Amino acid sequence: MTAARGRTGRPPLTEARRTEIRRGIARAAVDLFVTQGVASTTGEQIGQAVGLSARTVWRYFPSKESCVGPLFSEGIDTITAFLREWPSGQPLEQALDRWLTAGPGIAGGPDRATVGALVRLTRTEPGLRAVWLQAYDEAEPAFARALAERAGLPAGDLRVTIRAAMFNAALRAAVEHHAWRGAPAEGERTATEAELEATLRQALAVAAEGVR
After folding, report:
1. Same domain, 150 and 173
2. Are 80 and 26 part of one and the same domain?
3. 122 and 31 belong to one structural domain
4. 31 and 122 both lie in a single domain
5. Cβ-Cβ contacts under 8 Å for 23 (sequence gap 6 or more)
């Protein structure tokens, strides 16, 4: 009698491991884009930077520009979490102070210098610009759901849709306004991060006018 054969090969990756791989590819891609330009960067180079084959890179992303998507998404996710946790009736400034003191930076996710360099590239690289705008297009319904939960309204309520659009536009405008001023010198990074936070506070406060 022949014994049943067990499953061979590598075990399937967990979702956490897949997320980790995507993040590693994203960071490698942006480092290469910043140092040598998008046109000069290949899938093979991105893979080599994280010990993967180009074939594996393309398994996770359809194009080299799309590799940076997770870095954009992480920042948006942390804003969505903030909107969901913002207590009803609490002024935005107080909520921001409480949230920042609790831990995550307002930009969240990847370091701000990396995101700033990447956003600056979106000004001249159409492929990256498309990924950047797609991230915000996908963010808007997430913002709407968070604001709807906060207000006890349906996610499709027109007031929620408009407020989500305002927060979305304010966030993108603030990040672009800050990033397009240029890369900071090494000794200016701390002051620049404070400026970014102040810019985001101002933009979100404008969008929050009328939200209770």
Report:
1. yes
2. no
3. no
4. no
5. 70, 71, 74
SS3 185: coil
Residue 58's Cβ-side half-sphere holds a number of Cα atoms within 13 Å equal to: 7
Contact 65, 130 (CB under 8 A): yes
Cα–Cα dist 80/108, whole Å: 11
CA triple 185-117-195, angle to 5 deg: 60
* Count of domains forming the chain: 2
Residue for token digits 């930009």?
107
Residue 63 banded pLDDT, cuts 50, 70, 90: very high
Provide CB contacts within 8 A for 206, sequence distance 6+.
Answer: 170
Q: How far apart are the first and last CA of the chain?
A: 73
pTM of structure = 0.78
Please answer whether residues 65 and 125 qualify as being in contact, where contact means their C-beta atoms are separated by less than 8 angstroms. Answer: yes
Instruction: Assign 8 to helix, strand or coil.
Output: coil
Same domain for 94 and 29: no
Q: DSSP letter at 4?
A: P
**Residue 146, domain CATH:** 1.10.357.10
Block residue for tokens 């990447």: 118
1 to 4, 8: CA distances (angstroms): 9, 20
Last residue of a domain, one of 63, 91, 119: 63
pLDDT tops 90 at residue 39: yes
